[in-house]
Amino acid sequence: MSAKSPRTPLNDSGPQPSGTVFVLVHGAWHASWQWAPTQRALARLGAAALAVDLPGHGFGAPLPSGTHLPGQPGYATEKSALAGVTLEECAGAVIAALRSVRRYPKVALVSHSAGGAPASLAAERAPELVDELIHLSSFVPAGRPRFADYLASPEQTATVRGQGLMLGDPEAIGAFRINPFSADPEYVEELRLTYYHDVPAESFARWYHALSPDLPLAVPTTPIALTRERWGRIPRTFIRCAEDWACTPALQDLMIAEADAVMPDHPFTVRPLPGSHSPFAARPEELAAALIGDR
């Protein structure tokens, strides 16, 4: 029997990867798993992608102690295990992911929804790690420093859905809490219509039960100070979801306009996408094509 040839370890002195790598940052209550269909679509188009789990998210996310007990005792009042998670910690997870793929010729940082907060802070802290910012219906803190500032704007509150989905007092809990284990069909349907309205109910059930209950309070409420010399020097794209009932088209337009006004060096390139707040579930092939764009 002949001996097998030893496998050559991969290191920085070996062949360098080519093309763009997409670093994907999830939104509230989601995790790296949300991007799997989009990653497959990107791979079919010849693009690499790395999805990030922010602290406290993913399949190891903590649950309130009464989650699986009859009647879910204390579910709406129990202090979140994520109450102490900071936005700096979340940005740190993004920076670590960016560093791990910096050997690619180009790194595109993609954020969805509330993920725009840690992604933006990461880009401000380490602009040398990012060649392009892509916001998928996500928070842009250039005009206003907190996501909460935009969520309270008339552009959002006039037509947004899902205002009854949050449970308890976020300040007391230390998190914005939903119930992905609710047995109330009206609650489940309202969550679907708010975030996934173009995903059939039978398919949505799979996505729904994978959600985490808590978004750390710090993510939408911590101010972010962006500078023209750092964040503002990075070319940026906004993928605008035309029928988004969670982050309304009017709010998306407001964030784009205010960012371009204060950071004029690289105004947003806007790419339209039909459908809901969750194109990664409803139309991953179209989303992958929008991410790649003209590159």
TrEMBL record:
> Which PANTHER family does this entry report, sorted A to Z?
AB HYDROLASE-1 DOMAIN-CONTAINING PROTEIN, METHYLESTERASE FAMILY MEMBER
InterPro entries membership: AB_hydrolase_1, AB_hydrolase_fold, MES/HNL
Show the GO MF annotations: methyl indole-3-acetate esterase activity; methyl jasmonate esterase activity
This protein's name: AB hydrolase-1 domain-containing protein
Cited Pfam families: Abhydrolase_6 (PF12697)
**Segments forming domain AB hydrolase-1:** 22-290
